[in-house]
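Moderator note: this is an archived Q&A kept for reference. The question asked for a predicted structure of one protein chain; the sequence and the answer are reproduced below.
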Amino acid sequence: MSKPFPVNGAGLGLRREKLDEMLEADSNNALAPVDFMEVAPENWINVGGAFGKQFRHFTERYDFVCHGLSLSIGSPAPLDEDLVRSVGKFMQQHGIKHYSEHLSYCSDNGHLYDLLPIPFTEDAVHYVAERIRRVQDILQQEISMENASYYTPAPGSEMQEIDFLNAVLSEADCGFLLDVNNIYVNSVNHRYDAIAFLKQLPAERIRYAHIAGHYNEDTDLIVDTHGADVIDPVWAILDSAYEHFGVFPTLLERDFNIPPVPQLLDEVRQIAAMQEKWQTQLARRPQAAQKTPA
């Protein structure tokens, strides 16, 4: 059975460089389309002073989720349990509803400054799932793992991406952060059917979703940058996801080349409009079925 979503509606990432602009927008009620916000905890833990007060302004008014950057769940290095405890304290301090991370790794005796793919193997499934369970034990709550973009399969892979992802989520008994753009990026880079991949995901584990833009390096190489507007094929995957799974909370990611807040809100409104469309259509489906002659 699916668990309740930790947040609802359409969300927007809170970036430090946009704080002043978002504060002004909030004072004018211009952020009304935003139902929840997301931050990387590493960028905000122990932040005080003016930034801390501004952050508190938003956490007192909006639901928040955390999306971590440095847990490095697939790393051969020991799990950073001090980081996990700091994240837990940060979440309690600000009433943050949920914590998600990348199903990848970014460290081994030091940070590697990139998100690298985990080998798709049975051994890796067991190793990663055990580490996820440990994080959940420390936090005393469920976390979610995000399907990651990658540009070359890790050496030694013996499973398909979808099988590896589903196996980890099941063995770890954790939530799933569905990154719609990453499905599109990987489908182009690794030549698979995005919708077929989507339909194999575990609906009951979806906690919320990301949607973002990217950069076309070549006709067959897309880089997941979160630095551009969302394109139509990515919107189409989100549309298919709502049709297939039902409506779930969805957040717009924009990490650089960040436009003015009104432009960001246009895309947040597009998420909300798509959610409203499918909530209406899915609500009518049982009624339509009842009216169908036998």
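Archived answer notes: The CA atoms of residues 243 and 281 lie 9 Å apart.
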